[in-house]
Amino acid sequence: MGDFNHPDICWRDNAAEHKQSRKFLECVNDNFLLQVTEEPTRRGAMLDLVLTNKEGLVGDVKLKGSLGCSDHEMVEFKILRAARRAHSKLTTLDFSRADFGLLRDLLGRIPWEKALEGRGAQGSWPILKGHLLQAQE
User: What pLDDT sits at residue 46?
Assistant: First the structure.
């Protein structure tokens, strides 16, 4: 959503007078976007647009008057989908409960020079990670 500044676009007919506005319309159409603002938002022109890629995703679009000294109407709309929480399968270690003295002792027993000899950063990481995970158990 935003102020797209193409006052010559007729959204009902999907047409525009100026080349730049026709390019914008082409971009909107090429990306399968829908424009859902239905009333002029500034001096009879529909400049402030709400674009969506799914029909029925955005609704209840209303103009709410101007704010302060702006000559644009505020556009209010609702997203018509319930928010879903993403359930991550990523596990993390809880370091707030760690015994760092024990961790330091366990990791200090590892002959690091021998364990990492001849390996670069890419080869060393799995070894370090393995020892950290083993120590946390």
Answer: 86
Q: Quick one: pLDDT at residue 87?
A: 82
C-alpha 72/C-alpha 17 separation (Å) is 22
Per-residue pLDDT of 57-97, as tens digits, reads 999 999 888 888 888 889 999 999 877 777 888 888 787 88
Assess whether 66 and 125 both reside in one domain: no
What is the Rg, in whole angstroms, of the alpha carbon atoms belonging to the chain? 29
Number of domains in the chain: 2
69 and 7 co-located in one domain: yes
Same domain for 101 and 43: no
d(CA 28, CA 20): 12
Q: Please report which helix (H) or strand (E) contains residue 30, including its range.
A: helix 19-30
For residue 71, the SS3 value is coil
Q: Assess whether 25 and 52 both reside in one domain.
A: yes
Mean pLDDT of 49-53: 93
Asked whether the beta carbons of 6 and 17 are under 8 A apart, the reply is no
Cα torsion at 113, 119, 124, 127 (round to 10°)?
Answer: -70
**How far, in Å, CA of 63 to CA of 41, rounded?**
7
